[in-house]
From TrEMBL:
<feature type="domain" description="RNA polymerase sigma-70 region 2">
    <location>
        <begin position="30"/>
        <end position="95"/>
    </location>
</feature>
<feature type="domain" description="SnoaL-like">
    <location>
        <begin position="217"/>
        <end position="316"/>
    </location>
</feature>
<dbReference type="Pfam" id="PF08281">
    <property type="entry name" value="Sigma70_r4_2"/>
</dbReference>
<dbReference type="InterPro" id="IPR007627">
    <property type="entry name" value="RNA_pol_sigma70_r2"/>
</dbReference>
<protein>
    <recommendedName>
        <fullName>RNA polymerase sigma factor</fullName>
    </recommendedName>
</protein>
<dbReference type="InterPro" id="IPR032710">
    <property type="entry name" value="NTF2-like_dom_sf"/>
</dbReference>
<dbReference type="InterPro" id="IPR039425">
    <property type="entry name" value="RNA_pol_sigma-70-like"/>
</dbReference>
<comment type="subunit">
    <text>Interacts transiently with the RNA polymerase catalytic core formed by RpoA, RpoB, RpoC and RpoZ (2 alpha, 1 beta, 1 beta' and 1 omega subunit) to form the RNA polymerase holoenzyme that can initiate transcription.</text>
</comment>
<dbReference type="InterPro" id="IPR013325">
    <property type="entry name" value="RNA_pol_sigma_r2"/>
</dbReference>
<dbReference type="InterPro" id="IPR036388">
    <property type="entry name" value="WH-like_DNA-bd_sf"/>
</dbReference>
<dbReference type="InterPro" id="IPR014305">
    <property type="entry name" value="RNA_pol_sigma-G_actinobac"/>
</dbReference>
<keyword id="KW-0238">DNA-binding</keyword>
<dbReference type="Pfam" id="PF12680">
    <property type="entry name" value="SnoaL_2"/>
</dbReference>
<dbReference type="InterPro" id="IPR013324">
    <property type="entry name" value="RNA_pol_sigma_r3/r4-like"/>
</dbReference>
<keyword id="KW-0805">Transcription regulation</keyword>
<comment type="similarity">
    <text>Belongs to the sigma-70 factor family. ECF subfamily.</text>
</comment>
<dbReference type="InterPro" id="IPR013249">
    <property type="entry name" value="RNA_pol_sigma70_r4_t2"/>
</dbReference>
C-alpha cells in the first residue's frame, strides 16, 4: 500500500523524526491518527477502555519500532498494522473475551464486556466518519465479536478499511489464500448474526435520523419521564431485545423487558423522578437518564439507553450504567 502526493510529506517527516529520536515530532505526526486507531481497536475489542489501552500500546510499540518504518506504506497503515497485532496479542491472552450464551431462554448470546463509544471521539475526517457509521453501530460491534480473532481482523482490514488482500496477509503473517478463506468464513458468520437491514456493512451510511425516528425518541423520553408503562410498551416491538452489559441476561420481548424494569423498582418510590436527555452513542439514538431521589436536590446521571429503531418502533435497547463512564462526556447532574 503505497501513497503518493502531498501525503508523502508526513511519511518523510516521520522518518526524519524517527531517525533523530525526536519524541515531539513523533508525537505530533502520530497523534493525528489516534482517533482512527482507537476506533479500529474498539471494533476489535468492543470495549472502550480496552481500546484506549491498546491505542496507547500501539503508540508505544510504534515508538520502540520506529526504525522499522521505511515509508513504503502510509503512516496510518503502519499504525493500523501495529494496532491490529496489539489487539490480537491481547485477545490471545484473554480467552474470556468472547460472547457467552445468554442465561435466559431465547436470549441467544451476549457480549458482557461491551461498552458504548462516544460519537465525539470518532475520527473528524468526513470520509473516515462516514465509514465508521455502519461499523460502529452496536449490532455490527456485537456481531464481529462472534468471529475468531484473526477472522475478525481479516474482516475489519479488508471490508471496513478496504485493505488489499496482500497487505492484509502481510499484516497478519498469513498467506493471501488464508486471508481469503478467513474473510469468506467471516462474512458468512456476519450474515448469520446481523439483522437483515444491517447486512450491507461495506456501504457507508450517510443518513441522519428520520422524522419518524426522532418522533419515537421524543415519545420515549416523554413516557419515561411520566413513568408511563403503557406508553413505553406501545413504542416497543414485541420481539424487542434488552441487555445491560456487563450484567448477565438478555430479555426478549417488550412486555418481559418492561416487567424486569418494574421488578427492579422503575416507577416506584425512589425511582420515579426522571429527566432524560437525547444524545447519540455509537452513531445511534440514545436516551441519557437522570434520577432524583427524595433526599437529593439534583438529578444525577444514572444510565444511557442506546436504541435501535425499526419502522418507528424500538427493536433493541442496550443499556449502560453511565456514572462510571466519564469518557462519554455526560454532565454528572442536571
Amino acid at each position: 500500500m503505497t501513497d503518493a502526493g502531498p501525503q508523502r510529506t508526513d511519511e518523510d517527516t516521520f522518518i526524519v523524526a524517527a531517525r533523530a529520536g525526536d519524541t515531539a515530532g513523533f508525537a505530533l505526526l502520530t497523534e493525528r491518527h489516534r482517533r482512527a486507531v482507537q476506533v479500529h481497536c474498539y471494533r476489535m475489542l468492543a470495549n472502550y477502555e480496552d481500546a484506549q489501552d491498546l491505542t496507547q500500546e500501539t503508540f508505544l510499540r510504534a515508538w520502540n519500532g520506529r526504525e522499522s518504518f521505511d515509508g513504503r506504506a502510509a503512516l496510518r497503515t503502519w499504525l493500523h498494522r501495529i494496532a491490529t497485532n496489539a489487539c490480537l496479542d491481547f485477545l490471545d491472552k484473554r480467552n474470556h473475551r468472547t460472547p457467552v450464551p445468554a442465561e435466559l431462554p431465547g436470549g441467544g448470546s451476549e457480549v458482557r464486556y461491551l461498552q458504548p463509544y462516544p460519537d465525539r471521539m470518532l475520527p473528524e475526517d468526513p470520509h473516515e466518519s462516514a465509514v465508521a457509521r455502519e461499523t460502529i453501530e452496536l449490532a455490527f460491534i456485537v456481531a464481529v465479536q462472534h468471529l475468531p480473532p484473526r477472522q475478525r481482523a481479516a474482516l475489519i482490514l479488508r471490508d471496513v478499511l478496504g485493505w488489499p488482500a496482500a497487505a492484509t496477509a502481510d499484516a497478519l503473517e498469513l498467506t493471501v489464500a488464508s486471508v481469503t478463506s478467513a474473510l469468506q468464513r467471516a462474512r458468512v458468520t456476519m450474515r448469520e448474526r446481523l439483522p437483515e437491514r444491517r447486512l450491507d456493512w461495506r456501504t457507508p451510511a450517510t443518513r441522519e435520523l428520520s422524522d419518524d425516528e426522532r418522533a419515537t425518541v421524543k415519545a420515549w423520553v416523554e413516557a419515561h419521564e411520566r413513568n408511563d408503562l403503557d406508553g413505553l410498551l406501545s413504542l416497543m416491538r414485541e420481539d424487542l431485545r434488552f441487555a445491560m452489559p456487563p450484567d448477565p441476561g438478555v430479555v426478549v420481548g417488550g412486555r418481559a423487558a418492561l416487567d424486569s424494569w418494574v421488578e427492579g423498582g422503575f416507577g416506584g418510590p425512589g425511582y420515579d423522578d426522571w429527566r432524560c436527555v437525547v444524545a447519540t452513542v455509537n452513531r445511534m439514538p440514545a436516551v441519557v437518564e437522570y434520577l432524583r431521589t427524595p433526599a437529593d436536590p439534583v438529578y444525577r446521571l444514572f444510565a444511557v439507553d442506546v436504541l435501535d429503531i425499526v419502522d418507528g418502533r424500538i427493536a433493541a435497547i442496550t443499556g449502560f450504567a453511565a456514572a462510571d463512564k466519564p469518557w462519554l462526556g455526560l454532565p454528572p447532574t442536571l
